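Hi R.,

As promised on Friday, here is the backbone we talked about, encoded as structure tokens. Could you run it through your design pipeline when you get a chance and send me back a sequence?
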């Protein structure tokens, strides 16, 4: 029986770093296939992980939990047929809902494979801000994980760490929470902890499927109601020309509103850093938004070479929300002007990581955020 493990985590939490650690320290000798799903036009993490010699299926055209459910099931079946792996690791988009990924695995109709674990990687230094601003996505990952692995715990005080644990416990009372800095833990210990939550995983999966079925039923019911309402208004419009005129005015307004508002919320993007998501209100975990309604992504290839200092200055500038929108994540691989190696970089708010690494076939840059300003960002990296 092939084990399927989902390693979820919000943008920049450290999913790829954790997977690399597990592959190097706990899964050597196992036949492992990694399936990634990037929110964005260009996949970058695949380039990092190819160094580990792992077979990778990248799906860059959308969120694994919504538009790619059909393709996702096909990809899983193809992986099983082609590689017959002992384990499949799924790394969903950072803005994917874990419950949707779990449901997609369960609904894929797989023979000889089953969900083994669902993990949420949580950046302890940003958990409070992300719960407040992006709760619908961030909290969903916490709620449905059997194991919650905190990253960057060495960067915060014990008092702040205790508060983060309290916040997490408000949304998941049963999951095992790993608080020890990763460098002090062997990958085998982390894997044992993950696999020790099987009973809770089963309980969480049953709950996910129950809610999923209820939501599907509710969605079908609303579609039926909307159809009836449309028929009713259609006859009204035939009888009342004035009402029809106002209806079309309203349609024009909505059309303009959607195009002006990049994050799908229609509010001004003027706020202090960390207070809002860039759309004027909090996205509580009771909402039903798709990732592309809230988050923006730009990704492109570039042949330009940079110096390490140039990339560091660019990433530090991303903090300027008035200029670029609320940038939550940037990553890339680009040629270096003064070194045969290439520059690999990562950015999350308040944290910049720039290092040298192996060259790739071309440079790739990704920026993800809320209400991000594409023209300004492209000019910044130009």
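Update: got your reply. Pasting your designed sequence below so it's all in one thread:
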């Amino acid at each position: 029986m092939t084990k399927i493990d989902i390693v979820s985590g919000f943008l920049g939490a450290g999913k790829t770093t954790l997977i690399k650690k597990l592959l190097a320290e706990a899964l050597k000798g196992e036949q492992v296939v990694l399936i990634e799903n990037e929110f964005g036009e260009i996949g970058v993490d695949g380039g990092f992980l190819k160094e580990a010699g792992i077979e990778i299926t990248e799906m860059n055209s959308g969120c694994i939990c919504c538009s790619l459910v059909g393709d996702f099931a096909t990809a899983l079946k193809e992986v099983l047929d082609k590689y017959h792996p002992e384990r499949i690791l799924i790394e969903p988009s950072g803005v994917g809902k874990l419950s949707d990924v779990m449901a997609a695995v369960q609904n894929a109709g797989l023979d000889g494979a089953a969900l083994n674990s669902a993990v949420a990687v949580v950046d302890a230094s940003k958990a409070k801000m992300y719960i407040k601003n992006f709760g619908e996505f961030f909290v969903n990952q916490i709620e449905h994980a059997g194991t919650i692995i905190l990253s960057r715990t060495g960067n915060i005080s014990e008092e702040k760490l205790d508060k983060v644990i309290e916040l997490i416990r408000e949304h998941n009372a049963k999951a095992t929470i790993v608080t020890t800095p990763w460098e002090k833990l062997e990958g085998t210990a982390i894997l044992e902890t993950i696999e020790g939550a099987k009973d809770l995983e089963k309980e969480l999966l049953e709950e996910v499927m129950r809610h999923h079925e209820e939501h599907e039923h509710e969605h079908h019911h609303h579609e039926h109601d909307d159809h009836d309402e449309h028929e009713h208004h259609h006859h009204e419009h035939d009888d009342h020309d004035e009402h029809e005129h106002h209806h079309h005015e309203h349609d024009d307004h909505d059309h303009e509103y959607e195009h002006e508002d990049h994050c799908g919320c229609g509010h001004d993007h003027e706020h202090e850093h960390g207070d809002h998501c860039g759309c004027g209100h909090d996205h509580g975990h009771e909402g039903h938004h798709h990732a592309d309604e809230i988050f923006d992504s730009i990704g492109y290839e570039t042949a330009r070479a940079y110096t390490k200092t140039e990339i560091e200055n660019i990433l530090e500038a991303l903090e300027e929300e008035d200029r670029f929108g609320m940038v939550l994540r940037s990553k890339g691989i680009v040629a270096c002007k003064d070194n045969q190696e290439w520059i690999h970089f990562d950015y999350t708010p308040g944290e910049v990581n720039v290092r040298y690494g192996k060259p790739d076939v071309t440079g790739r840059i990704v920026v993800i955020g809320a209400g991000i300003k594409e023209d300004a960002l492209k000019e910044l990296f130009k």
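One thing I noticed while checking it: The domain at 2-208 is CATH 3.40.50.300 (Rossmann fold).

Thanks again,
M.
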